[in-house]
Each structure stands twice: as structure tokens, then as C-alpha cells.
Amino acid sequence: MSAPPPAICRRCLYAETHPLGLVIDADGICSGCRVHEEKDRLDWEERWRRLEELVAPYRSRTGEAHDCIVPVTGAGDSYFVMHLVKERLGLNPLAVSYNRQTNTPLGIRNLANLRIRFDVDLLQKTVNPQLVRRVTRTTLRLMGSIHWHILAGQSVWPVQVAVSHRIPLILWGAHQGLEQVGQFSHHHEVEMTRRYRHDHDLMGREGPDLLTLFDTLTDEDVEPWRYPDDAALHAVGVRGLYLGNFVRWDPKAQHEAMIRSHGYRTSRFSRTFDSYDHVDCFNHMDLHDHLKLLKHGYARVTDHASREIRHGRLTRAQGLALVRAHEQQPPAHVERFCEWIGMEPHALRFVMDRHRNPRWWEEVAPGRWRFRGWSTLVDEPEVTAPDIGFITNDRRERDPDGPEGGDRYILVGRGWPD
After folding, report:
1. Is 25 in a helix, a strand, or coil?
2. pLDDT of 199 above 60
3. Rounded distance between C-alpha atoms, residue 346 and residue 313, angstroms
4. Most buried among 23, 285, 403, 408, using CB within 10 Å?
């Protein structure tokens, strides 16, 4: 007997089956929308003063030592976070970056530009590429994820550096559990924890959980992604603050400010209308997002549309039109991924189909599937998908056979200023 259809928020497009955990109240409004309402009630000047008080004890007395660690990538909220930390708080941060290895030329450029524009020291970690491929094959088979090593690396490398360099304060951007599903209030001032990383970022699987009888991975192989133990954390006093608790978070407005002031570059995607998010990775808004749709019944475009609905830039009907226009666009970089991981495309399709959730997909004929995900359950009048003004500003032509193009990922690339 199939499960009953989930309740869908009456305001945004999220369902109660959201993998981060979400509740819908008696009025049909989800916890994420309710917590978003706080953004219009909070005194953000007072919240900023609260942040200044929290970071004050960590300031270097000489101004020469690093006051804090800031995790950065070639996309996401890295520019805005660095702007807050360096230019508004006046701290001297050490930027740290985990190399996802599926880098785009644009991501390489954005990360280099960030280091130059903000004049910061940057420490990057690159795990053995052969090991990363082996781990990715395992996570693809076990949990249908090609992104686990990135989620694990980006969330643990800053903590490892905090311990090894004895820099206790880590300043992160927004907490997705607050921003998306309202797990917490801004008032809770929730901090980065091992528990949240395990339950949500890592889908409940730490590195040692990847070790099975059917694999060749060893305990030593997963060491790059191991979280420091409590004794090491307490010895340094490691603390991770989320700036989204103290600043009115609005990714579209923030990215556009960074485009104007610091030269952030953007790129168009087929699977979403947001041209600012994850431009540094060939897979995130492509094959990784397709796997998300197979497993959870919704794609990243639903996250983007729900966010824009909450900020009042889209109606629910317009958001739904955008979701339906984008979510089932085919991934464009499958062959590139297959070459990298050493797998035939038909073998990849077989593995991905094993992770299709029967709640959202019905096999109507061998190899033919009918989608029954979240967007099919929303009742809204049909409207034309609107253009809400996301900027695409990376129009430079590249030699497809040169060092900045071609069919392979860029492991380590030359940074270049424009």
C-alpha cells in the first residue's frame, strides 16, 4: 500500500517530508516560513551589536594574528561572509577551502578573485584524487550520493584547521536548517555542531560508516573527513557561529551586492533559475541535483523558489511554474562524471535507478518512469514562469581544449584577475 501524499505548505512549496525535518502548523504554514517571518520583526541593528560582543574576545591584540577562520568556496555565500567578517567586523580571517575537485573554471576564478579582493590568506586542502574517486563510488552505491566527500570535507576541514592552528573562532554563513525548514529560531543562536553535521550534512554517515565487507576502503582512507575528538575541540575552545543569526539573510540581494562591489561572477543553469548558487561545481546543480530529485521528490529549484516566495519576489504560482520548468531538465555533465569516476553511463543509470524513491517515482515500463513528486501535488493556477532578474555575467569564451576548458574537471587551476 502506497503512502498517502504529504502535506504541502500553503505559502511555499516545501512538503512535510523534507529531509531536514519540517512541520506544518494548523494553518497549513511550514516551520521554515514561520521562522522566516522573524526577519521582519527582529531588530537587526541590535542583532549586529550582539555579534560584535560575541567576537570581541577573539580579536588579536596585535592585529597581526588571525582572529578567526572563514570557510570559503568559489560560490555560495563566501563573498558576503568575507565582506561581513573583514570589512564590517574588521577581523583578520584565515580563509580555508576544501577542494571539491569537480571545479569549474568559473569557480577557480571566483576563489582566486576572493583572495585578491579581500586580501586574505587562503589555506586549501586537496585530498588524494584517487581516494576521492574511491570514496565517491562507495557513497554512490550506499546512499546515492556523489557529493558526500564535499559535504564532509567542507564541514570538517575548517574545524581541523581551527584545532591544528589553535584559532578557536569559525564564522560560517547561514544555517540551512534555520533558513530552509525552521529547525531553530534566530533567537536560539544555534552554533555549528558535530551532531548537526552527522544527522543532516552527512546523511547520517560518518567516514567509518562507509567501511563495509563489500568495499576496499580502510579506516585510514576516511581519515581526511574525520571530525576532531572532543578533547581536541575543548583544548582549543573551538566555536562556530552562524552569521545568519545576526544578519538579515537574503542570498539574492547579497550576491548582487557582491557582484557590484567585489566582482563575483555568475552562470546560468538549466535546472534552476538562480544563476548565483554553486557556480563552482560541474555536478552540484547537475547530476547531484538530479539524484536529489530521484531520492526526495524535489530538486534545488524548489529550494530557490521557496526562498524567493518567502522574500516576496515570487508568488506561489510563479514559483511552481519555475519548478516545473526546471526540475526535470536532464543533467548535462554525465559523461564528464563517468570518465572521472571510471563508470559507463548505463552502469551509472542502473545505480541511480536503485536509489529512486518509489514514493515519488512509478516505473510504468522497463526503464520508463512517471514522476509523482512534490510539484505534482501542488494546486495552483497555471502561470507563465517569470524572469525575476538574476544576473548572468560570465560571458567570456574559453578554448574547450585549453587548460581552463575541456571535458575534465579542474583539480587545481590558475587564478586570474579580470
Report:
1. coil
2. yes
3. 41
4. 285
Q: Amino acid letter at 157?
A: W
The three cell numbers of residue 391 are: 544576473
Quickly count helices (H) and strands (E) in the chain.
Answer: 15, 7
Mean pLDDT in residue range 369-377: 97
Quickly list H helices, 64-126.
Answer: 78-82, 105-118
Cβ neighbors of 248 (< 8 A, separation 6 or more) are: 39, 42, 44
Q: What does the buried/exposed string (b/e) look like for 109-142 if buried means 16 or more CB atoms within 10 Å of the residue's CB?
A: bbbbbbbebbebebeebebeeebbbbbbbbbbbb
Q: Is the pLDDT of residue 400 over 70?
A: no
Query: Measured at the alpha carbon of residue 87, what is the angle toward residues 81 and 91, in degrees to the nearest 5?
Result: 85
**CA distances, 125 to each of 55, 112, 264 (Å):** 26, 15, 22
Residue 372 falls within a domain, yes or no? yes
Contact 417, 116 (CB under 8 A): yes
- What are the backbone angles phi and psi of residue 169, rounded to the nearest 5°? -95, 125
Q: By C-alpha distance, which of 109, 100, 69 is closest to 85? A: 69
Rounded to whole angstroms, the Cα distance separating 32 from 34 reads 5
CA distance 352 to 124: 31
Q: Which pTM value belongs to this model?
A: 0.94
User: Does 47 map to a domain?
Assistant: yes
DSSP-assigned beta bridge partners for residue 69: 94, 170
What's the distance, Cα to Cα, between the start and end of the chain in Å? Answer: 58
167 occurs within a structural domain: yes
Residue 397 confidence (pLDDT) above 70: no
The residues, any chain, with a CB within 8 Å of residue 145's CB and separated by 6 or more, are 139, 203, 288, 291
Angle between helices 300-310 and 316-326 (to 10 degrees): 160
Say if 13 falls within a structural domain: no
CA dist., res. 60 & res. 63, Å (int) = 5
In the predicted model, is pLDDT for residue 187 greater than 60? yes
DSSP for 229-290?
PHHHHHHHT-EEEEGGGTS---HHHHHHHHHHHH-------SS-S-SSTTTTBTTTTTHHHH
Q: Give the bridge partners for 242, in sequence order.
A: 172
What mean pLDDT do residues 226-250 have? Answer: 97
Our count of domains for the chain comes to 1
Contact 75, 105 (CB under 8 A): no
> Kindly report the CA angle at 368 between 362 and 369, in degrees rounded to 5?
30
* Mean of pLDDT values over 177-205: 92
Domain that holds residue 168: 31-376
What confidence score (pLDDT) does residue 203 get?
84
